[in-house]
Give the backbone structure.
Amino acid sequence: MDALSNSYIPACFMLFICFLSIALFLKKTSQAIDYWLFLGSFPSVVMNSNRIPDWFTEVFTSLGRGSFFVDGPIFSNLKYFVTCHHQNIEYILKTNFNNFPKGPDFKQVFSPLGDGIFNADSESWRVQRRMAHTAFISAEFKNLISNISRQVVEDQLVPLLVHVAKTGSTIDLQEVCSRFAFDVNMNAIFGLHGNYLSTELPSNDLAEAIGDVQEAVFFRHTMPMFVWKLMRLFRIGRERELLKAVKTIDAHFYEHISQKQKHLIQGVKTFDLLSSYINEELNRTKIPSLPPKNDDEFLRDSMLSLFVAGKDTIASGLIWFFWLVSKTPSVEKKISEELEVLLSSKMGQLSEYHEWPWVFHSDDTNGLVYLHAALCESLRLYPPVPINSKTVLNEVVLPDGSLIKPGTQVLIPFYSVGRMPWIWGEDCLEFKPERWMDGDGKLARHENAAKFFTFNIGPRTCLGKDMSFTQLKAVAAAVLLNFHVEVLEGQHVCPKPAITLHMKKDLQVKIHKRVI
Ligand code: HEM
């Protein structure tokens, strides 16, 4: 026995020395920030997991450069390259796009979205992109979005705010924005009235299930893959909730798909995204590169991806905009003045504008330069998609000289890009719509377009950019023309750790009728 332990001790000691030598070598050669022996940058990631976008911003600022590495614990094989370097971003998202796919891990983490456009790479993505693009650029679809936005604003949002103003009560504006975006999506995708945004603020199991899916997918980001896979296997914790939520979503989506198919067979004419995909699907047998799924599954994945793409982004874009405007009275005043000029020109033409509350047509809000600039400015500081992620296929040297190995996860924090003094100037943290305008009061598009990544750039640029501005302007114009939003004092406003940039807590506001 003694002889046995005598031989074990030196062996263990040797093993430890080897392990220590490897760990020391890795520490010496690693370029990662905050590197701890054995643990890599993991302790810093854990400590900042509640505030990743702000942490990234602080690291860039303290390093004074636009890129850094984050390593996982020893032998975890986790390596991240984080960059807000302007030329790197162009190179990754545009110039060498094919070398930076989303990758298989992305698809596993976002598995509730199935084979929809967000999870697709290569040929499957190309085909789906073409389908979505065809639907989105049609004049019919653009009209649809304008009409729906106006309708939901006029019939649901404004009456709710009138009610809140009259009763003098408070309301969570974040909830209101989220309900607005849900109703617009129900209408645009399925041609149905969501009625989630009404004075009673009813519950809605589909909206709640979509929220639960997003929470669970974010939760997956916070732990190693094998952990959440085990949780899924044993149906525990968030994974259990996720399975339940997906079941609810499937029940709704398959029901809507089946109803729509019946209507189309009966010759009922409707125009919405689902109808246009069903019509397009008739040609699908000619497109062998799409995932081998039956038609309904493909429609379910596609519609859910579009729903998620269009719902939370709009809700996020709206809430941060209203919060920034409420904190900056000079901007609120300029937007209101611009709206009043438009209103008085409309009053002279149309009798429908003679009575409060007023709601513009989308065609009219298109020309609102200052409002457009204020929205861009808010989307710069609070991009609804705060971080974009890619994987690396082949080893490359990026424009800033960083060498990136295959398998590295590339993170592009749009949130930090909007907050770098070397990109936006020393006043980068100020909410200043004027930076989007030239001396003649026109939009200075070219100057900013090259550094505005909020809607992504390159082949995977957001397909919903134009329709986003239609919706954002419809809501912003109606709210700021008719009301003053008073944010209640004492609320600590900060981003919630999530895939989309929401506020951590409610935003409680009072609504006052504006006197013109
Ligand atoms: C303020 C609102 C919005 C912002 C900031 C935004 C931003 C983005 C970003 C950053 C991406 C790239 C995501 C990635 O590569 O993983 C993206 C993609 C996309 N967005 Fe948006 N989005 C917004 C609204 C919308 C809306 C309303 C729709 C309509 C359904 C939409 C549809 C899409 C689609 C289909 C893609 C996928 C493009 C592709 O992978 O080829 N987006 N968006």
In short: Residues 295-327 form the longest helix (33 residues). The chain has a mean pLDDT of 91. The domain at 78-513 is CATH 1.10.630.10 (Cytochrome p450). The chain has 20 helices and nine strands.
